[in-house]
Design goal:
alpha/beta; TIM Barrel; eight-stranded parallel β-barrel; 13 helices; 8 strands; globular
Amino acid sequence: MTEAVVGKLSKSLTADAPVFAAWVGMNEPAVAEALAREAFDAVILDIQHGALDFAGASRAILAVALADRPAIVRVPVGDFPLASRLLDAGAAGIIAPMINSRADAERFASFAKFPPLGERSWGPRAALPLSGQDTHGYLASANTLTHAIAMIETREALDALDDILAVDGVDGVFIGPADLSIALSNGAKWDPRGPALLEAAASVVARARAHRKYAGMFCYDGADAFAMAGLGFKLCSVGSDGSLLRAAAIAELGAARGQAAPASGKVSKSY
């Protein structure tokens, strides 16, 4: 590895260019590693809605590190102790879903950050070697090297956004567009790129910048990620392992049968 892999996420997020991440839900480290060996800036491992468990995510973090990329992990709702374990396993960032209040954000940060920002306990079994530092150096820099990212998915979270962003130890926010669109429509529809969602998204970007923090967005494909980066989102996923596999299968089978390529958006978008 050319430099400590854990620190690469912070370096990318403080640079001018957007950070494009692969999204992995399959509980197979080889899938995460294969995507990491492409030109993605990071890999996001999804425990919340994906098939990954702690053991699979831990192995995937190391597999992604072999490809010289940092890994971010989305944990299940409220499972903040798992966030600490994944940081010990070498994750460069944690995405926590359904952060709806300052209290939620403070509890998340307490597990993701060492004192004085939080109460993360010591045990960086894989994080320490991946940081390239000794114990004293890692303790001094870990709160900056590893990112705590709060998901914004509800009306309550939008109302509390400034309070969430004001929490020391929360480094950024990440929109879950499917859940947020459902919340904004009072459960009437799934519309992750509808006018209501995009209006809320613009506000999230602006308010994050006002707090000198960043906003991320789940994106459905490359064109969508390009568009969301253009709106100011710093961290953008690019589809998912499942959607990329399906899209490739559809395209290549179509080519084999002499059929025209399907229009964009034909592949199922489950998030």
